[in-house]
Amino acid sequence: TGVNNEYANFVAHVAEARGISAEKITTQIGAFVYDNKTATELGLMDETANRDEAYARLAEDAGIRGDDWAVYEIDRPTGGLSLFGSSLGGAEEDTTEPECNLYRQYLAYFGDVSALCLRRED
């Protein structure tokens, strides 16, 4: 069945990514939610960090040294078709671009962050 296939995919992925035998995963670990201490003991995670420590580690892993990185949270419209750049209704839509158009979603960005604010023709 589909669930069994997905479980087999999960086991294969965890076995390869974490260096744990598929047999150990299916007979001892399973597909459960574990607390941090237990997950670390089972080899499912390396360590526990707060958000700032995690961001710093990601920057380091990306080869960014020092404090030459930043993380920004961007408020996005959440209603209806606005997610697709459309609107409904008879009112005239305001098409004025903000001074810094950060409507794209960046999960990770390396480089001059001011480049994110340049006006672009897509």
Structure, explained:
The protein is mostly helical and 122 residues long. It is built from four helices and no strands. It has helices at residues 2-18, 22-29, 36-41, 51-61. The chain is elongated, with a radius of gyration of 22 Å.
Q: Roughly how many Å apart are the termini?
A: 43 Å
Number of helices: 4
List SSEs in N-to-C order.
HHHH
Proportion in helices: 25-40%
Oligomer: single chain
The main β sheet shows up as: none
SSE class = mainly alpha
How many E-type strands?
0
What is the overall shape?
elongated
Mean pLDDT: 76
Backbone CA Rg: 22 Å
Low-pLDDT runs:
81-90
Beta-strand level of the residues, as a percent range? under 5%
What key phrases describe this protein's structure?
single chain, 122 residues, mainly alpha, 4 helices, 34% helix, 0% strand, elongated
How are the SSEs placed, and which strands pair?
Layout: H1 2-18, H2 22-29, H3 36-41, H4 51-61
